[in-house]
Amino acid sequence: MKTLGTLGEREAIRVIDRIVKSDVPVGIGDDCAAMDIGDKYLLVTTDMMVTKTHIPKGMGPYDIGWSLVAVNLSDIAAMGGRPLGVVTAIGITKGHPIDFLEQMVDGMNDCALRFGTSIVGGDTKEHEDLILCGTAVGEVDKDKILLRKGARPGDLIVVTGCLGRAGSGFFSLKRGLSLKEAEDQLKRPWPRIKEGMVLGSSGCVTSCMDISDGLSASIFELSRNSGLTHEIDYALIPKASEVCLAFQDAERQKDLVLNFGDDFELLFTMKREREADLAALSEQVGCPLTVIGKVTSGEENILIDNGRREKLENLGYEHFRIRKA
Amino acid sequence: MKTLGTLGEREAIRVIDRIVKSDVPVGIGDDCAAMDIGDKYLLVTTDMMVTKTHIPKGMGPYDIGWSLVAVNLSDIAAMGGRPLGVVTAIGITKGHPIDFLEQMVDGMNDCALRFGTSIVGGDTKEHEDLILCGTAVGEVDKDKILLRKGARPGDLIVVTGCLGRAGSGFFSLKRGLSLKEAEDQLKRPWPRIKEGMVLGSSGCVTSCMDISDGLSASIFELSRNSGLTHEIDYALIPKASEVCLAFQDAERQKDLVLNFGDDFELLFTMKREREADLAALSEQVGCPLTVIGKVTSGEENILIDNGRREKLENLGYEHFRIRKA
Question: Which has the closest alpha carbon to B31: B199, B210, B264?
């Protein structure tokens, strides 16, 4: 009998995609679905957080609440959207203190307000362990929507902020390294709402997604959507200063930067002829925008490391896969 | 230490409501949240389904998928809305057969299409047992929205369809009574989308909600929202024919009709002077609309049974409450 353990999460999504019939402008497979509501698109995204596999030790209830809202808003950001509201469904045990619920909802509320929206509703159910599901809705002008598809050969590959900080925070918590800022980044992700809206309005972005599952996984996802290959230079990737504090070994550092994820930065492609606009855009949003490579029409996705070209492996976090011993 | 077990689900929602700050036109506490999007309201609702407490034995994966979508669409119906799309988050074990996922998604897809909408996206996560979270979005003209508040003294209390069928289906499955139609009603709830839209457009409805948690709980909820009391006559309640097949005992029958829930009918109040319009509205939607009582300004909600007036008890299904021995 074929079980879900023999598929990966992405393959399971393809199973679902084959069954579901929908004629919305953007359906399964992008950061959000988009529906036509007159002169705008309505954006919707949902994300389930399972305590045991998704919530690192060291995260308190406030952080958990903040994260749930942040990861959903990050999907709205990846489409260039303005958030309209967030609903949160909470599965929680009878034994959880009321305090825990209050702090968690505090985190949800604060994150939503910080990014210009609010918690508008939800559901609460008794469950054997803590499980959360958030859904964010947003809107975007039709000509400003950012999609995973759309890159063309020669486009530049750009990231917001820096990578590896959340991963460094994870290992800091695990090993007691006290990398405070990195731990905060992991516990309280920062959705790039403003950045997404500015990028959507700029007219120079050809494809975009958020880096929730790691840079390599996101590169593969953009590549799958455009049908083109991507070439990135490891030396160009903006790395969090904590990466070399988390690991001395260069290979472990590389793994953190390329594959860990949870940074919730935006990865996008843009028209090469607009490269000169990057500085102004970066200043406008108050966030670094760094070119890390280019879109090509090669055979495979490439990582340039110390001048050496190697195949970029897709090693992002994926559920269901039964790891082989 | 105060835990969630000492609160009920509704009290937990009040805890959340006290913390959350939002200025949307309709927030926590109605069937859906409503957000302003120009000349319409955007409606959003979310519902988590936990296998062990929410999914009766005898329901297959197709039924589970159908139900998840149906209960969310029922909330859109209760606000008079037109559904725009549904997203579903699925927590599922590695050991579930792929077949199971396929049939469940089939049920989701069929239910959405049946009610004029579609599954537009979702999330899939590995979890120790099956847990589902659906979110529906919809829209409604601002002047046609149906809310839980708004009833006035003298208004008539009306229900769509009949009550007790899903509950009869539950006991039929449990005891092997083979009440096929009742079991189907339980397994594949029928959201009153068309009915809600027609009622919203009629201009005669003053408050509305769906009866997911049972008639008594819904009466109390409308009462809490209007600040008025409600008086219903047991003899007037349209009862499913299966109720007397499920139980011979009149008290058990009454409990089923008043408290079981899961029928997903609409309960609404309407202007008394429009009573004559009910027949035409009923014909338009192809569904019985039955007056079962009236809105009053008394001391408590009243049930008239065989001419005897008694206090209506709020015995609807509620989570978290630790039952006293």
Answer: B210
CA angle A193, B27, A28 (to 5 degrees): 50
Note the pLDDT of residue A320.
54
Query: How far is it, in rounded angstroms, from Cα A48 to Cα B122?
Result: 9
| Beta carbons within 8 Å of A84's beta carbon, 6+ residues apart | A117, A137, A138, A139, B35, B37, B42
Task: State how far the Cα of A219 lies from the Cα of B310, in Å rounded to an integer.
Answer: 67
The enclosing H or E element of B270 equals strand B266-270
Structure token pair of residue B153? 């003294």
ipTM score over 0.95, yes or no: no
pLDDT of residue A325: 26
Judged by CB atoms closer than 8 Å, whether chains meet at B9 and A48 is answered as: no
pLDDT of residue A166: 94
Which residues, including other chains, have CB under 8 Å from residue A175's CB and lie 6 or more apart?
A: none
Q: Which domains does chain A have, with CATH numbers?
A: 4-142 (3.30.1330.10), 144-311 (3.90.650.10)
Mean pLDDT over B218-234 rounds to: 97
State how far Cα A264 lies from the chain centre: 4
Q: What are the DSSP E strand ranges found in A150-252?
A: 156-160, 205-210, 229-233
- pLDDT per position as a tens digit, B13-22: 888 999 999 9
- Asked if the Cβ–Cβ distance from B15 to A98 is below 8 Å, we say yes
CB–CB of B132/B49 below 8 Å?
yes
pLDDT score for A183 = 96
For A319, which of B121, B126, B128 is closest by C-beta distance? Answer: B126
Burial group, residue A39, by CB count within 10 angstroms (0-12, 13-18, 19+): exposed
The Cα–Cα gap between B251 and B241 comes to 16
Residue to test with chain A: of B40, B101, B111, B123, most A Cβ within 10 A:
B123
Chain B closest-CA separation from residue A37 CA (Å) = 9
A20/B108 touch (CB, cutoff 8 Å), yes or no: yes
Side-chain half-sphere exposure of B301, counting CA atoms within 13 A = 22
d(CA B251, CA A23): 49
What Å distances lie between residue B177 and A150, B61, B181, CA to CA? 57, 22, 11
Residue A143 one-letter amino acid: D
Distance CA B36, CA B42 (A): 6
Give the pLDDT means over successive 10-residue stretches in chain A (325 positions).
Answer: 80 88 94 95 96 76 97 98 97 92 97 98 90 97 98 98 96 94 95 98 98 94 96 98 96 94 96 97 97 96 96 76 35
Residue B135 in this model has a pLDDT that exceeds 70: yes
Pairing of strands B156-160, B266-270: antiparallel
Alpha carbon distance B69, A121 (integer Å): 18
Give the percent of chain B with pLDDT over 70: 96
Residue B62 in tokens: 């197709």
CA distance B210 to B322: 25
The structure tokens listed for A80 are 């260039």
pLDDT of residue B10: 74
Number of H helices, E strands in chain A: 11, 12
Cα gap B191→B81, rounded to integer Å = 12
Which of A20, A53, A110 to mutate to probe the B interface, most B CBs <10 Å? A20
| CA neighbor of A218 nearest in space, from A188, A263, A179 | A263
Strand, coil or helix: B99 = helix
Considering only CB atoms, which chain B residues are within 8 Å of A105? 15-16, 19-20
